[in-house]
Write a sequence for this structure.
């Protein structure tokens, strides 16, 4: 079968690999669609990062390059292994793409996303969504019902936003400021809107500002190049400030703006994976008693996200900006997202 595999930095190839074999406690999934994630782009340009380095296989997956890519995917069950009695051939599903040990203190406490050996299917090994089929342990498979398979490929990044919103403690009636309208910023805003939160998005790109408005996830869009964002937030909140804020850009100026725009005792959640150390104005954190929180991936978020989509609280269609074949992964996928990322939100790949 065809599979996109990472061999080395800027060396991703469409290889012919054996189809995976179903084992007890697993199911085989025929992949329908797989999204290209910003993490995939970082691996291509700067990796290996989450991908194991050559000679250092992942402790749970046991793999090193070449590894199959793709962790934002949907598909249909085509075979179930022994011991799996709650999945059936024909079920449409998504995957929570984890490797966890189940034995460390964090796993035993239920925080499996903080496992000391944690890895991601589609990065650390175990196959990936950028292939024709994959075999996954039952515990990581979620049924999606009648959600279209192309939209379902966005359940994984939407779960990232959902976990960040959960970390923030945002509640209906709150005002949230989102710094950055890339895919994660937009999807985080979508979760907030679905929960009844007023959303303000700060973004420079004209195309991304337009997408934030046309998709319906932003109540207000601010341009930091032409207006003072903290002042506008005060105006929009009756002089109070934002209740919660989300850093989705990995840019220090954005972080500073969010700290200024938050109300006293507001909550700032950092979603970005930073490529360099950030500078935090601790005086603002101290004098306003701001709660600065980190967030990584998701934990028990997929089922809640699937319900939000099925109940019509979130519409994922506006965020799909391209569909391509696996053979065109680099030329029409990676190159587009690297060089024209202001116009492309989520490009889906059909293997």
């Amino acid at each position: 079968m065809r599979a996109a595999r990472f061999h080395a930095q800027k060396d991703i190839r469409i290889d012919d690999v054996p189809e995976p074999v179903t084992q007890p406690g697993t199911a085989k999934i025929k992949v329908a669609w797989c999204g290209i994630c910003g993490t995939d782009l970082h691996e291509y340009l700067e990796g290996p990062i989450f991908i194991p380095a050559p000679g250092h296989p992942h402790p749970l997956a046991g793999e090193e390059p070449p590894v199959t890519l793709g962790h934002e995917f949907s598909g249909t069950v085509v075979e179930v292994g022994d011991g799996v009695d709650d999945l059936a051939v024909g079920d449409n599903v998504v995957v929570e793409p984890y490797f966890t040990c189940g034995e460390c203190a964090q796993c035993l406490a239920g925080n499996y996303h903080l496992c000391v050996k944690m890895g991601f299917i589609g990065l650390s090994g175990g196959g990936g969504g950028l292939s024709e089929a994959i075999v996954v342990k039952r515990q990581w498979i979620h049924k999606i019902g009648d959600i279209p398979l192309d939209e379902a490929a966005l359940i994984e990044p939407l779960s990232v936003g959902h976990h960040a919103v959960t970390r923030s403690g945002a509640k209906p009636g709150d005002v949230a400021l989102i710094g950055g309208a890339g895919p994660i910023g937009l999807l985080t805003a979508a979760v907030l809107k679905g929960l009844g939160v007023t959303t303000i998005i700060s973004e420079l790109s004209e195309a991304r500002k337009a997408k934030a408005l046309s998709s319906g996830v932003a109540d207000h869009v601010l341009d930091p190049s032409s207006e003072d964002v903290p002042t506008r937030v005060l105006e929009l909140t009756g002089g109070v400030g934002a209740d919660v804020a989300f850093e989705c850009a990995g840019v220090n100026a954005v972080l500073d703006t969010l700290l200024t725009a938050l109300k006293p005792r507001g909550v700032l959640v950092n979603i970005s994976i930073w490529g360099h150390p950030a500078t935090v104005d601790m005086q603002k954190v101290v004098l306003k008693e701001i709660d600065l929180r980190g967030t990584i991936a998701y934990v028990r978020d997929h089922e809640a996200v699937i319900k939000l989509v099925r109940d019509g609280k979130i519409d994922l269609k506006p965020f799909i900006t391209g569909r391509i074949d696996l053979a065109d992964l680099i030329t029409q996928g990676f190159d587009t997202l690297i060089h024209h990322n202001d116009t492309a939100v989520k490009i889906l790949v059909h293997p």
